[in-house]
Amino acid sequence: MINLNENSLRIDDLMRSGRKIIQSADEFCFSMDSVLLAHFPKFKRKYKVLDLGTGTGVIPLLIADEVAHIDAIELNPTMAEIAGRNVDLNELGGKIAVVEGDYRKIRYYFKVESFDLVLANPPYRAIGSGAVNDIKGVATARHEFTATLEDVVTAARFALKYHGIFCMIHITERLCEIVDVLHRHQFEMKRLRLIQPKSKKPPNLMLIEAMVGGAAGSLKIETPLIVHNDDGSYSDEIISIYQN
Description:
By secondary structure, the protein is α/β, with parallel strands linked by helices. It has helices at 32-38, 58-63, 77-89, 136-142, 149-159, 175-184, 236-243, and strands at 9-13, 20-24, 48-52, 69-74, 96-100, 115-120, 160-171, 187-198, 205-212, 220-221, 225-228. The longest helix has 13 residues, at 77-89.
């Protein structure tokens, strides 16, 4: 078992179904990106879901009421242990299973084509792009030190059934690269939603839904998601997402 620095831990309210989440100041704490991704898919009650790089398990906690079962894999042993604690804290052991492991070796943990939906909030930036955070857990969450875009899409394709759904949040500047990688792994984009910091600011993030073996030419581009009003306050939609 990992020796956690208990003094660095805190418990936050997820404002959903009375759930709480343990986080560590020494590691990467979940951001709005994970919350937006958790609210993006069109869930079905029967879905078996896989969360790639779950961190402290925030996405499984947020979607547990929407699907049949969630498996979550996390490479960082400290964060994997915290994710497991969060499952226990919220009494969701029958719904969520956390595995400490490397999804680049996904075949050692899960059966091929055994999931209906895969979610990923992967590192956004290639190594050498942008400043690297001094906190190791934050650095690996933001930069592709341990998993590349190719790695995450490869893992998603291995896990998903034919016509299974892959949802991911990423930065807009890598859209062309993402489309190329998805096509090479038999995915077709079905939905795209751009995220703008403010209404007059260009989008910097995007939510993507892709289907294994989906028909070409049926991409739906949704209205942009505006995060902040012009005065800096959160938009009504962001407030609604957090309160839902």
